[in-house]
Structures are given as structure tokens and as C-alpha cells.
Specification:
β10 (249-250) and β11 (256-257) form a beta hairpin. This protein has 452 residues and is an alpha+beta fold. It has 2 domains: 41-77 and 112-349, 2-Layer Sandwich (BirA Bifunctional Protein, domain 2); 365-451, Ferrodoxin-fold anticodon-binding domain (Alpha-Beta Plaits). It has 12 helices and 19 strands. It binds adenosine-5'-[phenylalaninyl-phosphate] and magnesium ion. The site of magnesium ion has 2 residues, from β14.
Amino acid sequence: QILKSIQNTVNSNKINILNNVYNKTDLSNVTNNIIKHVGRNLHLQKNHPINNIREIIEKSIDSTSSKPFIKYNDLTPVVSIKQNFDDLGFPKNHPGRSKSDTYYINDTYLLRTHTSAHEVECFQKMQTLQNNGYLISADVYRRDEIDKSHYPVFYQMEGSKTWSRDNSKENFNKIQTEIDNMKKQLSTFQNLSIEDVDYTHEPESVNCKQSHMTDEETSILISHMKRTLELVVANLFMQRYKNYASSSKNNKKGEEVIPEIKMRWIEAYFPWTQPSFEIEVFFNGEWLEICGCGLVRELAYKNAGFTKETQMGWAFGIGLDRMAMLLYDIPDIRLLWSTDERFLKQFREKEGIFKFKPFSTHAVMSRDVSFWLNTSVHLNDFMELVREELGDMVESCSLVDEFVNPKTGRKSQCFRINYQHLDRNLTNEDVNELHKGVEKKLIEQFGAEIRN
Ligand code: FA5
Ligand code: MG
């Protein structure tokens, strides 16, 4: 695995990823710092928290169906722009397509920004596999900010189930039986509270049913999808509360009281699902979005080669890193990438979900950099420069000040970088040296004039 990742390289005109060579174009913006993560496959690393969460979710989902879902866990992260965006109906001007949000390899390929990039190909495969459900787990890549909960590489699990629209009683009964079984499982959790939301019944809304589907089809599929995901979330949090001695309290009779698991459904929008929803969990005093989903639009089935309006189904995408951090109490997303024994050992020694014991963290040291420019630097471009220069030695980074000189029209920006190494102490001299490197890159890449 390590050998594989070392072979990924970017040079002045070629990009080498997993032994494939791509010619660079003006659109190329992947960096060495990013592609060295390709091939790490934390989702398949035995005893790794991301792998553990994947296994628990796979098991929950398989328990809803008589046939196990097909698992695709080693699909390559290099996909075409067509797979990632066009086939899913992303409009040409969708912000997700922009160079400041996405890592492009060249004019044809990119590093997938979500596991949905494989939906259409999985629907194609489904036609010969005689199985209507699949799960995909994989690394996804997004240019994003830098803080304790954002990393440019993270893991998602995608899931989907499809039925033919034959309108038979038998078909509906099969779906209803699965729903009833899931409801039975859900009713065994006494401490569950779920706030639901219906799809919009206004025919003009983005969240109404698809016009070719009936109300009956729409509601039964939504119910099947929601109960499946509620079960996933309930199983994960139940394991957490059971294994966290500190979070369960005893009542007057001395029995253990498990905290309430609170979730809610909200309406959402994705170009390839309709209606669409998100599930949120109430945790540590706030609502956290953990999973997007919806009924697959006809457009996706059509792009997979299905005959017009013969299929119906649902799809979801859940973030595995966020779930792992919540459930194990992992305070910094960079830890997931750590090869430090103090991190890895804890997951080898215990099974399932437990409370992670943070080990001594090193001091955070802040430095500001202020500079003049004719045009401002996009936040994500600054973040990328910092990542490329500092790798995991930056804990977080933010824009602290910005103004325009009214006479010259020139822009001034000030960014704060919080330096911290996970495994060792950085000295003042180390940080000064690193910070000089960032200033040098700003001058080289953007023609910035550093203010002192
Ligand atoms: C998607 O990526 C859709 N592909 C999900 C989907 C699939 C919708 C199938 C409909 C049908 P979104 O960008 O919201 O949606 O990400 C999905 C989940 O990934 C989020 O709920 C969150 O748990 C996780 N996630 C998103 N961005 C980050 C990030 N920067 N760091 C960690 N986790 C993230
Ligand atoms: Mg979202």
C-alpha cells in the first residue's frame, strides 16, 4: 500500500496515479500533497476507525434485506468529469465544478468529489448481477478549508436499492414487508426520537415527486429509504452509548439509562435525486448533518441504459470520517491519517465503538501573514498553498482581515495559520522557518507583496 502511494507523482507536464499516466492541461490542479493519499485506503485498513464504521453500517444495511448488498470497496478515485458531474445532471455552472472546489487531473479526469460518481456505472452492472442493492465505500477529494473537522480527503459510503416499476401488488408487498421488519427493529430502541418531514406536494417544487412516479410509489420508497438510514444511525449511536461508561447514567432503581438518540429529517437538494432529504443527529448540543439521500431520478437510470421509466429506487451518501470522529470522540480529523502507534494501538486493542483516549498534543503556535495583491486570493487557493507547503503541520487556517485601498484599488488580506505537529513539538525556529516558506510561495505563485 505504501509502495503504491509513493508512485503517485505530479511533475511539470504529467501526473502519475496508481500506475496510470495523465497529460496535464490548464485545468490540472492536483498536487503531490493530495495524491500521496491515493492508495492509503483507510476504509479497508483492519481495525482502523473508518474501516470499523464501514463494517458496522454494511452489517446494518444487510440486515434489512434477504439478499446482501453488493459491496464495491476498491473503485479507483480517478473518474471522468462525465461520471462525477454530467451523468448526474449537475448544471454546467454548478459551483461544485469550479477549480477552486475540485481537484482536476486534466480536461477529462478528476479525483471524485463524491461516491455518487459511480452510481450510473453501478446501475449498469446491476442489470447483469441479479441484485438490486449495492454499497460503495471510497476516498473522495475536495478543495476545502483547513480546520479540525475538514481534510481534503475523506471517506464516503454510497448505497442504493432499485425495484422495477411493474406496479404489481407482489412488488409493493415485498417492499412493505421489508419496511415492517425495519420498523420492528427500530421499535426495540426505546430511546429513539425521530422528527420526520414529508416530501413536498406542490407539483412545481424541486422537492416534489417525479412526475412519472405515483404517490404510492413515492411514499413507499421514501419510507423504505428513511427506515434503512434510521436503522444505520440508531445502530451506530446505540453501540456508542452502550460502550461509553461515562455517558450512561443510572436511574433511581440503579438501572442503566441510555441517552436519547435524536435525529431529524430535513428537505435537501441533489441534482440526481428527487425528492431529496438529509438526516441530522443531535449531538453535543447541535444538529449535525450526516447523510444526504433521495429517490433516484429517471435521468440516472436512463444514463445507465435502462428502458424509459421502468425503474425506481433510492440512493444515499454518508460521511464516514465525520461518523468516526463523533462516535469515537476523535478530536482532530488529521488523527485519522496518523501512523502513530498511540493512535493505532487503541483500535487494535478494542473492538467496536469506544471512547478514544487523546494522547498529549503539542502546542499550537500562530503566525499571521499579510500581503498586498491586485486581486484577492480565493480562500481555497490559499488553503491549498498552505497544505502543499506544510502538509499536516497546520492545525487550522483562516482569513482574519481583508480590505481594499480606495486609492490604488489594491487588496490587502491577512491570514492566520495555526501551526501544530501531531507527533512532535515544533520550536519557534521551526515555525519561523515554515512561515517564511509560505511567504515565499505567496510571492512566487500569486505575486503577493508581503506587508511587514
Ligand atoms: C454528497 O456528497 C452526495 N453525493 C450524497 C448523496 C448520495 C445524495 C446519493 C443523494 C444520493 P454531501 O456533499 O452533502 O453530499 O456529502 C455527504 C456527506 O459527506 C455529508 O453528509 C457529510 O457527512 C460528509 N461530508 C461532506 N463534506 C465533508 C467534509 N469536508 N469532511 C468530512 N465529511 C464531509
Ligand atoms: Mg451536504
